[in-house]
Amino acid sequence: MKTPDKKSALSEIDGINQPDTLSIHAVQQIQKLRKKQPSAKELIDGILKHDKVALSRAITLVESTNPEHLSKANEVINGVLPNANKSVRIGITGVPGVGKSTFIEAFGKHLTSLGKKVAVLAVDPSSTISHGSILGDKTRMEELVKDENAFIRPSASGETLGGVARKTRESIILCEACGFDTIIIETVGVGQSETAVHSMVDFFLLLKISGAGDELQGIKRGIMEMADAIVINKADGDNINKAKLAKTEFNRALHLFPAKKSGWIPTASTCSSYTKEGINEVWNTISDYLELAKSNHYFQEKRKDQNQFWMMETINEQLKSNFYNHPEIIELIEQNKKAVQNDEMSPFAAAVSLLEKYFK
Ligand SMILES: Nc1nc2c(ncn2[C@@H]2O[C@H](COP(=O)(O)OP(=O)(O)OP(=O)(O)O)[C@@H](O)[C@H]2O)c(=O)[nH]1
Ligand SMILES: [Mg+2]
After folding, report:
1. Residue 218: is it exposed, middle or buried by C-beta count within 10 angstroms (0-12/13-18/19+)?
2. A GO CC term (predicted)?
3. Which of 8, 11, 216, 350 is the most buried (most CB within 10 A)?
């Protein structure tokens, strides 16, 4: 039995003998597989053949910060683009603990039972702090994880909202090309992430739980305006009556908002992800919306507007990151900051000199 290469992770520290059962052939197989990175073409072919492993790998490239990976990711995205877009994209938001992941599990299972193929992505720029809901979500979506017609990808982390949003958008395209017809995007209802998600979905759903009769308190007006439906979750056990009251109150409040450009009138409903009551009604509501928005062409127009918006966002993001990562600029920013602090330079002059330097 030959001992594998000392540098390999499969090789033990000095003084410890390799077990006899270690097969050098198996080690070499693993090493070979590990090193072999699929080409852009292989990934494109895999995705178009609806291979989830290829999809996962392509998303990993999209999430990478390595410039080489990024250019490969772009190649893959461009290659599959003609096959994307044929889906419905649903955004789901709500405060932490409202039951988004549990709802997505129940809702997703309902969708796959209708023969749909469901991909779940998450926008959660805060997950760097909370160390991500990767484990949490995968255990909360136990059934969906096992469903062969579902694909769950936890949020990319360690990033700004802009960065996470770009990755999610590109992942949507990859999922669609891989045959997923229903894309669900979960976002936690804090910060600006709802706005980012709203601008990448067709239908935006706000999840709520009933409170102590003060349902509208503490809810951001902007989120109410963005919502195409409000669903009061956890309408089970002792909560049923409170949930029904909350539904009435939200329906009344929704009527006070100006009419939507889509012609759609948002409504509130109740559901329980535990008893599954109300889950199929949520899909019926979304189907009604799609019928309306497609027949009056709002659906198509909105997607075009979103594409333009994301084009501009991508330019903004790239310019910013290119500027701030430029070695000379990194140095000069520090110098100019000091100069501004010591009143040797005006903030305006300090900024202009940096920009001029960069664009020269
Ligand atoms: N009674 C009841 N409890 C629920 C229901 N849905 C979720 N829960 C519970 O609510 C808690 C939070 O659920 P999650 O699905 O993790 O909520 P979340 O909104 O995804 O939370 P974050 O990912 O942390 O933002 C869990 O303890 C769930 O078991 C429901 O329909 N009824
Ligand atoms: Mg969650």
Report:
1. exposed
2. cytoplasm
3. 350
